[in-house]
Amino acid sequence: MKPQEPTYFNKEARLAFWMLVPAFAVVLVFVIFPVIWNVWLSLKPVFLEDLGGLSLFEFNLTLENFRKVFCDQDFVPVLKTTLIYTVGGSLLSILLGFMAALLVHGQFPGRSLLRGLFISPYIAPVVAVTFTWSFILDPQLGVLNWLAVNGGLLAQPIPFFSQRWLELDIMGMRLPLPIALISVILFEGWRYFPFAFLFILARLQAIPDELYQAASVDGASPFQRFYHITLPHLATVLSTLFLFRFIWTINKFDDIFLLTRGQAGTKVMTIKVYDYAFGEFDIGASSAVAMVLFGILSLFIFIYFRWIVRE
Amino acid sequence: MSREYLETAIIRILRIAGLFFFVVIVAFPFYWMIVSSFKPLEELLLNPANLGLSFSSIDFGAYYEVLFEHGFIRYISNSVYVAIITVVISVSLATVGGYAVTRLRFRGRTFMSYSVLIVYMFPAIVLVIPLYVVFSRMGLRDSVHVLILVYLAQTLPVALYMLWSYFKSLPLEIEHAGLIDGCSRFGVIWRIVIPLSAPALASVALYTFMIAWNEFLFAFMFLDTPEKFTLSRGVVQLAGSVHLSKQLVMAASVLVTLPVLALFLLFERYLVRGLTTGGMKG
Predict the structure, then answer these.
(1) Is A38 among the domain residues?
(2) Beta partners for residue A215, in sequence order
(3) Domain for residue A24, yes or no?
(4) Residues in chain B within 8 Å Cβ distance of A119
């Protein structure tokens, strides 16, 4: 018998393998491996100064890191802040994106210019826009506070990103506002609404005109047409957007870190990951928080697909 | 009919008010960034609420200082280097890989194509500590080349996915003709697939460029030596070292923003396609 020739199929498979290996290897080393390595680190006592030694590979697993994380007196407030920031930021960015999409939908001169303008917060580098907003809202040098104080709207400037509570006096009622947290949520809405905007605009343009014409003929007013035609058509894209925005907002580190460093009641879990590692030099606890974050995210995704989308 | 008329009028008013609101909140920060970067420090301190900028008082001092005294020439060239290398490698690997997933039959192909998207969901903050540990230990952390590899890992899944779905839409017949006429698989990619996929390749390139250019977290954690800083890292360094001199920080912000916005305005169509697929993980 002749030695078996490689079949066409085998040849193709081998070629495909070699074509995919480089991309696959990079992702394996820089994504898959760190995720697994993170599990290992979260179960060990590792400090920043241990990185040189062999203890990194020692088999001394413990749950001590998780105990530390859950017993930290910061844990509950941080969890609360994380959820408020994530849900608030996601909803606000979707709401703003929805409004912007409705405004730009339709034909009018300058439309594509506006569309380009509306996407720019999302395109611009995070460092540039965070520093610009910090400057605009600065209590001493910021243009907004200066105008409001000189215009008589405010008695004194508001330190938007550095004060935890702002006492609001509404007709004798004292209402404390978590001003720094509100400010970062507003920033989140400003920076990420273009993402929702793009998707909602695309969906709006896909709704057939005949539906609106038919409804018009049947006597539906503009608001009724919006409520009975536009909204139902957007339901799917809105809930998908919420899923994506939730995942990306809960994982967000850069924005809050650059705006407040997690001070003044804006400490979210991603900031806590950083604080443990570079404030307390405790890599183990830092990895444990990352695991908890990942757990919460998985739980959300599970709930989302189990109860929110049911088809 | 009157209800129709009333509601149309309300919608028109809301639309004008809404457009005004959005234009102001979106454009003002960029306007303020540029205007402030051209003002001398005394002007910013004495008169913070001066919204305008007179042509006679335009001051390039901040740009001079940032570029030549704070090392931004170096940061710009580092960022250009990192972004361009990332784009070239990412587009090449994704073209070859995307082609393999689309046209070649092998086991685990569907699994492969969906797993790239799942991988994309892992947050950067979960990846950064383990990678920090490993590369610190190997003594390789403070390097732009490691940074390029990280950016590749961040962009490749989306790049692969985008090209994969584009390649599927290309007609098979031309490729078969090429194969029959004696082209190798790589010949087919080079002579047929790449020329036909110019728009998709442009989307991937722009998307990758933007990620590599804007990225902050890994650059901040990995780079220690100022000579190796990327622009984003350099701006943070500058903001931490000058307190009152906001005009310097604004000039630096203009320098980091300008290339990305310029590219975006030139190639908006392509970039929007990239964004709606990849979403920039933002």
Answers:
(1) no
(2) none
(3) no
(4) 264, 268, 272, 275
